[in-house]
Amino acid sequence: MVPTVASFRTQKTKRFRVLLPFGLGRAYDYRAAEELAIGIGDVVMVPLGPREVYGVVWQTVTGEGPDAIAEGRLRDIIGRLDVPPLQEPLRRFIDWVAAYTLSAPGSVLRMAVSVRSALVAPTPRRGLIASGEPPPRMTLARTQALAAVDAQHPRTRAELARDAGVSSAIIQGLVTAGALAEVELPEDFTPAAGGETSGLAPKLTEAQRRAADRLTAHIRHGGFVASVLDGVTGSGKTEVYFEAIAEALARGQQCLVLLPEIALTAQWLRRFRTRFGMRPTEWHSDLKQTQRRRNWRSVAFGGSRIVVGARSSLFLPFRELGLIVVDEEHDTAFKQEDGVMYNARDMAVVRASIGDFPIILASATPSLETLVNIDRERYERLELPDRIGRANLPEIAAVDMRDEKLPATKWISGALSQALTDNFAAGEQSMLFLNRRGYAPLTLCRECGDRMSCPNCSTWLVDHRLTRQLQCHHCGFTVPKPDVCSACGAAGAFAACGPGVERVAEEVAELLPEARLAIMASDTISSPTQAAEFIDQMENHEIDILVGTQIVAKGHHFPMLTLVGVVDADLGLTGGDLRAAERTYQLLAQVSGRAGRAEHPGRVLLQTYGPEHPVMQALISGQRDRFIASETAERQHFNLPPFGRLAAIIVSAPDERRALEVCAALANSIPADLDGARILGPAPAPLFLLRGRYRHRFLVMAERHVNVQNLVSRWLGDYTPPRHARIQVDIDPYSFL
Fold first, then answer.
1. 51, 61, 385, 453: least CB-packed within 10 angstroms?
2. End residue of a domain, out of 113, 136, 156
3. Is the entire prediction scored with pTM above 0.70?
């Protein structure tokens, strides 16, 4: 029973500071009667103005000191919710992320308690047991149903009907007759069996075994260790870190595997079930609300022993977390670009450090930040230099598009066309890669030159022929493609400029009309179920030629895929991004690694206008380390990350005048003492208009020793932007748009 306000006058009370899951500047003090047995980390209901909201007890307070709130002004904690308390390492992690990203702690807390319905025990399910009363009339179906009843493990009506092989009407008839009685089923978060459960662990190569032994030793000894599993594509990195997972599960610990893309999970889940004989708990945006509620509670109560998920799973309230794996650690999808801006790879290392347990970073193309941490002896490196079995790395060659002289409506070179034709004739699969969705990135009027642009963003609308829509890939705005130009009234004058995957697929269909063709992009793959179906089609050789965006580069294993063609290898090298060369190398190396992963040799053709570029030369020669050394030297020369620090300040507002006013106020308050740092801007963002907001940017560039968080906090101070204007801080930015 929750105490009344009056009863607090006669009871001993304690003061607590409660953090609320909102973007507020501080936690709030409340009191609670001692008989409520409130403790640190408990999830509680508290009053906030006229509302009742949930929060987490963050600390106790004494009621003394200059910031103490008078007893008469304190409000009372309403009650504690029926979930385990957030443990101290998670609370420390939330505080750390908030301080590092300069976010409100409540905003970070919201990611840990993101499923409000999970904080309250669900309506109990009801199961059936035999009542001891025989039905007045027995049939074969009724006999089957009663024989399937288990007194020790009651089941729901649907489960009993399925297990007995009878209809739901038979079950209902037995309930009506009094032969079956309903009982309440408790929530079941019994941990699944772990470790060597299936007996299907593969035989590891010598290099795999050395790496696996090192990782399992870290699990046995305990403590924080960051290990980088650096292996070429197809070297069996997943099977190696599965050994570490098996060791952690055998020791009763929970494990978290972070994957950058939802499309990666289909093959990964299949391999996991083969290895462990069970399905892990999933955590990503595609889950239904009921699944999210159950999975969150299962993690919190310790029932889920292994979680595979997107970056947000890093904030789940694990009870006994003992290992984190970040697969494809280089992937930019781990960086969250809105709300609390954080890099899940880096924050995963922090969570493992705070929790004092090992972390594994796996990639065929580790990020420069990770490689520098290896050089600084912060991380250890475990190498897998060869592919498994008889598979060899593919042969990579460049096609110099300056020599091709293709017509304006063609995008596939003669060399790549011939390779596709030969590969199809040989009964093998091919993949064409172009990191552009849709049919064409730009549609313009031939008569007046008007370009179809997004009304909410300073970007062009992408032509999607499959859906007959023009779409903005930044805000999601869509509109049917018009027949008449709105600027000049010309009919039928629109021209598609440039290729997207749909246009490349159209060209392939003209070249090889008998080939079975498919497009793989985020437009066609929006859930793990769709991804699994697509992967099954590739594995069963129901697709001859696959045309896709970067989603095709994500760790897929297709044994019959022997040819990869990159339609525009130069695409990512422009735009002023400091990581442009590194990202392009990583992406092209990953997509090249899809070829020749079984006994059939693989071949990769890179269509480029700059075959002499260091990225192309590194891919062709296979000399990754030389490219990394060159990229490292350039970053170090210009004092760019990971040798210097960056922070972006993004000012936005629905009208440009207000955004400029905020920029002027911030520019006038830049601190005079910027020892080891400089502030550039303000300047219009490359994406000047985004989702209806005008955007300007400042960029803080600092030497590595500078605490940019302190600098930015001192600069922004207590400044409050006017209504509707917004200031966002991005520590360690990855996007410069």
1. 51
2. 113
3. yes
